[in-house]
């Protein structure tokens, strides 16, 4: 689905991403891990159109989408969430979900005057879809709560729900588990798994929690110093000596050797 070929992103003399290549297969939950400063979020931002790459190309289903703006990628079914949730804090959970679909008739004042029945019908369809999302995510208890009052984990569930309000081809999740308690993290993981298996969503996720990554992701891609270091299953990555050194530190690598 997504093919990334030799992407680099430089900020002055800093090579945040350096000649990175990877493939995200349709129907996969791909994990992207690495130490802080490895270039993971910068790569996400290049793929999602926030940054234009210094060099390299990004393809979606064979189409070159390099440098496309975020709203253009949204229309093509590429969505992303952020490490810090971006909710409309003064709207309810249900209203946040209903805001997502674009080109709604009710957004045009003239339609509210000359075709109010169409506006009402469309709003009813969107409300029904929002209710389906709320039921799927099992958050009916906060459906009419202001989003600003939600916990960090509930806000992450809401962000995931917002991706369900449109026909997403692929969703990029940036540290969906950051600052989330274990109970809610399990709920988020269950939702991602069900979206993948039952509704065919493709995911790519940045995450530091290896238990969470191991539960959901295959393959796992490791970045270090802006480049791809290794790709494999979670078990293969955990046993990879280069990953242990880059991601966990040389001390642990040497300690592992000493125990052999």
Automatic annotation (TrEMBL):
GO terms for cellular component: plasma membrane. The lineage of its organism: Bacteria, Pseudomonadati, Pseudomonadota, Alphaproteobacteria, Candidatus Puniceispirillales. It comes from Puniceispirillum marinum (strain IMCC1322). The keyword Cytoplasm does not apply. Keywords: ATP-binding, Nucleotide-binding, Transport. One of its GO terms (molecular function) is ATP hydrolysis activity. Gene3D superfamilies: P-loop containing nucleotide triphosphate hydrolases. It comes from the Bacteria. This is ABC transporter related protein. CDD domains: ABC_Mj1267_LivG_branched (cd03219). Residues 2-250 form the ABC transporter domain. The keyword Transport applies. Pfam families: ABC_tran, BCA_ABC_TP_C.
């Amino acid at each position: 689905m997504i093919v990334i070929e030799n992407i680099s992103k430089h900020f002055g003399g800093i090579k945040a991403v350096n000649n990175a290549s990877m493939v995200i297969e349709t129907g996969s939950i791909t994990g992207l891990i690495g130490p802080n400063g490895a270039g993971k979020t910068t790569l996400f931002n290049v793929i999602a159109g926030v940054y234009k790459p210094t060099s390299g190309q990004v393809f979606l289903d064979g189409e070159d989408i390099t440098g496309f703006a975020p709203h253009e990628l949204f229309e093509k079914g590429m969505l992303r969430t952020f490490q810090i949730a971006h909710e409309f804090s003064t709207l309810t959970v249900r209203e946040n979900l209903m805001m997502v679909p674009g080109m709604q008739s009710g957004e045009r004042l003239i339609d509210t005057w000359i075709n109010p029945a169409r506006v009402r019908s469309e709003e009813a369809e969107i409300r029904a879809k929002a209710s389906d999302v709320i039921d799927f995510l099992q958050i009916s208890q906060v459906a009419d709560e202001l989003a600003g009052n939600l916990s960090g984990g509930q806000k992450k569930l809401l962000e995931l729900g917002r991706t369900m309000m449109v026909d997403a081809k692929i969703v990029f999740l940036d540290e969906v588990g950051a600052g989330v308690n274990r109970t809610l993290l399990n709920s988020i993981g269950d939702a991602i798994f069900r979206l993948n298996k039952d509704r065919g969503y493709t995911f790519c996720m940045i995450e530091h929690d290896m238990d969470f990554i191991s539960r959901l992701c295959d393959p796992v891609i490791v970045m270090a110093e802006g480049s791809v270091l290794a790709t494999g299953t979670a078990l293969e990555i955990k046993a990879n000596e280069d990953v242990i050194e880059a991601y966990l530190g040389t001390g642990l690598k040497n300690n592992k050797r000493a125990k052999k």
